[in-house]
């Protein structure tokens, strides 16, 4: 066990890269690759955000470019020799992916969602609305909100411990989808790319050059 990584996990709810919970095992960091020879292992950076040139475009131009890239990204991922579908929560991210899929396919997209018996946590109604809009072949199940029995299995497949309980509902919807398809598209990652959470917006809109430690730890790691 890497004791520093364990400290990181207990502090932040996840292990901060390049550490892993295993001693002497490290992440290959984003934008880098390893060159491995018989005598040496060296790390090289192939991309860095610091090396990008700021582009001056209008909002309409950015929207047009983004829509074109996303549409093309979805299209090329439909090249599959196995049955495929999509996770559909009814939110903006997954609904957008399903919308593009439906434009490129001649048959209804197979979509999958889970809901919860407790109405406070159940968003399946929104998934059904999106499914109706894009005329998908929709499959949905309702489960109990307490999924702690899946914790060990979910963590095993993630390789490291983490404190994000959303992996357990994701496991359930994956189990549902696996009955019909072998591959799915999802909307994961959009919040991280486009500041989908208030804690990201706080940093972007902050008028100061620095963020206090109190704000950083309470907002970013909440």
Structure, explained:
The protein is α/β, with parallel strands linked by helices and 222 residues long. Helix content is 41%, strand content 14%. The chain is built from 9 helices and 6 strands. A 4-stranded parallel sheet has the order 5-4-3-6, with helices on both faces. Strand 3, helix 3 and strand 4 form a beta-alpha-beta unit. The longest helix is centred in the N-terminal third of the chain and has 18 residues. It starts with a helix and ends with a helix.
What are the defining features of this structure?
222 residues; alpha/beta; four-stranded parallel β-sheet; two-stranded antiparallel ribbon; disordered C terminus
Strand content: 5-15%
Amount of helix: 40-55%
For the largest sheet, list the strands in their spatial order.
Answer: 5-4-3-6
How many β-strands, per DSSP?
Answer: 6
Element layout with pairings:
Layout: H1 3-12, E1 32-36, E2 41-45, H2 59-76, E3 84-87, H3 92-104, E4 110-116, H4 124-133, E5 137-143, H5 151-158, H6 167-177, E6 183-185, H7 190-193, H8 198-205, H9 213-220
Parallel strand pairs: 3-4, 3-6, 4-5
Antiparallel strand pairs: 1-2
Helix pairs in contact: 2-3
Brief digest:
The protein is an alpha/beta fold and 222 residues long. It has helices spanning 3-12, 59-76, 92-104, 124-133, 151-158, 167-177, 190-193, 198-205, 213-220; strands at residues 32-36, 41-45, 84-87, 110-116, 137-143, 183-185.
């Amino acid at each position: 066990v890497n004791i520093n990584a364990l400290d990181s996990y207990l502090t932040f709810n996840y292990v901060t890269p390049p550490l892993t919970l295993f001693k002497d095992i490290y992440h290959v960091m984003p934008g880098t690759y390893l060159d491995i020879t018989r005598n040496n292992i060296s790390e090289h950076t192939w991309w860095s955000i610091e090396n990008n040139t700021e582009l001056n475009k209008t909002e309409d131009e950015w929207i047009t470019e983004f829509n074109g890239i996303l549409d093309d990204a979805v299209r090329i991922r439909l090249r599959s020799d196995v049955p495929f579908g999509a996770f559909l929560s009814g939110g903006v991210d997954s609904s957008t992916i399903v919308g593009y899929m439906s434009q490129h396919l001649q048959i209804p997209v197979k979509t999958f969602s889970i809901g919860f018996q407790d109405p406070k946590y159940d968003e399946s109604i929104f998934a059904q609305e999106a499914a109706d809009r894009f005329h998908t072949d929709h499959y949905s199940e309702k489960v109990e909100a307490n999924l702690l029995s899946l914790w060990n299995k979910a963590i095993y497949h993630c390789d490291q411990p983490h404190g994000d309980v959303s992996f357990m509902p994701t496991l359930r919807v994956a189990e549902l989808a696996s009955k019909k398809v072998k591959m799915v598209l999802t909307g994961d990652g959009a919040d991280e790319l486009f500041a989908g959470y208030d804690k990201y917006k706080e940093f972007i809109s902050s008028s100061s050059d620095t963020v206090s430690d109190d704000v950083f730890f309470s907002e970013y790691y909440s």
